Amino acid sequence: MPGENLSRDEARERAALLSVDGYEVSLDLRSAVGGGDGEPRTFRSVTTIRFRCNEPGAASFADLIAPGVTAVSLNGRDLDPSEVFDGARIALEDLAEENELVVDAQCAYSRTGEGLHRFVDPEDGEVYLYTQYEPADARRVFANFEQPDLKAPYRFEVRAPEGWTVWSNGTGEPADGVWRFAETKPISTYITCVVAGPYHYVTDTYERVFEDGSKLEIPLGAMCRKGLAPHFDADDVFLITKQGLDFFHDHFDYPYPFGKYDQAFVPEYNLGAMENPGLVTFREEYIFRGKVTQASYEARANVILHEMAHMWFGDLVTMEWWDDLWLKESFADFMGTFGAVGATRFKDAWITFANRRKAWAYRADQLPSTHPVTADIRDLEDAKLNFDGITYAKGASVLKQLVAYAGQDAFLEGARRYFKRHAYGNTRLGDLLSVLGETSGRDMAAWARSWLQTAGVNSLTPQVLLDPEGRVAELAVVQEAPESHPEERPHRVAVGLYRRTPEGALERYARVETDVEGPRTVVADLAGAEAPELVLVNDDDLTYCKVRFDETSLDTLRTHLGALTDPLARALCWSALWNMTRDALLPARDFVGLVLRFAGRESDIGVLQMLHAWANSALVHYAAPQWRQTGAEQLAEGALRELRAAGPGSEQQLAWARFFATVAFAEPDLEFLKDLLDGTTSIDGLEVDQELRWAFLEPLAAHGVADESVLAAELARDDTASGKRHQVRCLAARPSAAVKAQAWAQVVESDALSNALVEATIAGFDQPSQRELTAAYAQKYFAAIERVWRERSIQIGMDVVRGLFPALQDRPETVDATDAWLDSHPDAAPALRRLVLEARDDLARALRAQECDAAATGH
């Protein structure tokens, strides 16, 4: 529907015309329970909006996506819904200076995670509701002006089924069957929130006494489905929450402004989490049903702190339009890691950032859709796709560089002034740059031009010349930029020199911080140093770049990578080697060999799990087809060897067990997994809990060892929402043409599955061992995607277009078919074309890497 995709120009025009005084929203959710699940369900939504118009007599519109509207009243005049409502917008004519709009609508419950999502727990039949709006789905629940710069206070009231509890952004109490909530501060539509149902709810309190003697008390709450309550470690959630609130109060000098602080872990969630003030929502997978490594707890802590940082960056001060989405997401991503290191037990979180988050950014920044951190967001579809590795992880990396460039004290003082100057308002790039310029004394405009307003990633390579005595005569850093984005940026970097000790450890013996500018920078302070075995540009990960190595350094890593004693340096080297593999500079088999040789010595569990994921990707996408069988055998053999060697009950043992399941394919390995499941064999210290059972079952299903009856029996053992998702994924993974046809039809031809089951089906459908079985779906994919994009919600559209692209049909013919679709669909939705272009680029990159790998042995 044309009106659904609000453009930036329309939003600016409306913001220039209107200002909003307040909303009153009344929802009747009693229809959520009872009746069959076959029919569409709706709920009543009555919204009153009081707003002003600075051009009386002008026309505008309100946003609402709903199956039907019962009544519309503007300034006491009843309007005919059939005349003013087109399914997405309500036309408002002849506005007065002060206006009151009342809309009585029938809105739809969602099964896609957008708007008001309704979930029925298969374990006990209970119904759970929650809202998710970013960037523009509040209009699926109540009539509004759906853009971030038309902030307003909100009053919500909710009628709910008997026995339910309801939460919203403000505090609320029930009376006469109605939950009424306190008025919020002025906030944007996309961060309003309602959660309702028979959730398991735990409470605590945060207290803070400030230097002036004032006291802040924040009620804390945490909730999940009743079925997950036995696994809910709320104490750890509250611990991280309190540590984060202390940390941000220490650094922001602006007390948390939104009253209570609830955190809801909800089912079938599309995102990691959402920063609704006073009621943060998270995907319930952050409640761990089985044993996980500390990397999982660290990831959860990072997300908790990320969302908490949004209370200031995003909720208190909000970007004017989605162009400046980075003003909230980049800061929150940086602050999540900054806070984890500064306030929690996760002191090595910068290693995770360097290894995992930046890998996301490097990939995104080399796609044809790459964009500056401050993006050109023309409309809401653009905005939806820009929640990407550039806006989050590159933006956070750039802020890390800014801290090195301007100094941490100046950076934080700038943040403090920014909050106080723009509280409850909306900002653009210039508003932040002005305060940072004040506090740092630096030319922030020049810095922003290089780092925020250009795209692409630079490569930094060391050049080392030795004198006749074997010392460093000159060490220079060469900067390169891709032709498509030729910007050479100023980089504040540390250059580290490493050599082996007599005991064999590879350790740093010299380090210099310097500014790299232009194509070549000489690091004068390292002249005269003893010859290094390894030069690590961007030591300590101060800047955002792809690190390259000189030949001596690369040879050292091939033989002594495991001897690097510093875990951050080791993680940076692994990341650089992975980027070289993706860039077809290092054969995939060489990367796999390095993982097999050195990963067993990796002490950082998050890095180890990342290496497992990279090694598998190297085999599936970047290895020459002729070598895949050999590589698969090597990985499975190595994984089993490390599994048996790992300490009983250790995190490494669990990580290698999961990785072995990922790469197992030969009959003896599959039989071993089956025996572990049956309990006829065991590994000392390895507890095969329910989550690990499903991890073992997927390869058994994909290779035809576990059939439908085995999976049904496992679901009976784990008849939960999580168990259902696992079973659906395993069912779709089976090696059968009929199975693939059914899975395709369920996802592409029907909208009966919820978002979570769509995701699970797609995950099972495309198995690396089944390339021939799914080859026929490449043509079907291109025939279907425009219709899917047009008919389904944007979230489901994104899942289908990304998840079912025939990436495993890694032949030039697939690239040609993609190009043919792009050439014949020039007028397809820009967001759809972007997704297809990105998938094409990934495929072309894989083919280049395969050529590099094949050349390693002359194939």
Can you describe this structure?
By secondary structure, the chain is an alpha+beta fold. Helix content is 43%, strand content 20%. The chain contains 28 helices and 28 strands. Strand 22 (459-466) and strand 23 (472-480) form a beta hairpin. Helix 9 (408-422) crosses helix 10 (429-440), helix 20 (708-717) runs antiparallel to helix 21 and helix 26 (794-803) packs parallel to helix 28.
Strand order of the largest sheet: 5-4-7-2-1-10-13-12
Query: How large, in whole angstroms, is the Cα Rg?
Result: 28 Å
- Classify the beta-strand content into a percent band: 15-25%
What is the average of the pLDDT values?
96
**Count of alpha/pi helices:** 28
Q: Percent of residues in helical segments?
A: 40-55%
Largest sheet: 8 strands, mixed
Total E-strand runs: 28
Derived from helix and strand composition plus strand pairing, the structural class reads alpha+beta
What is the general shape? globular
Low-confidence stretches: none
Distance between the termini: 52 Å
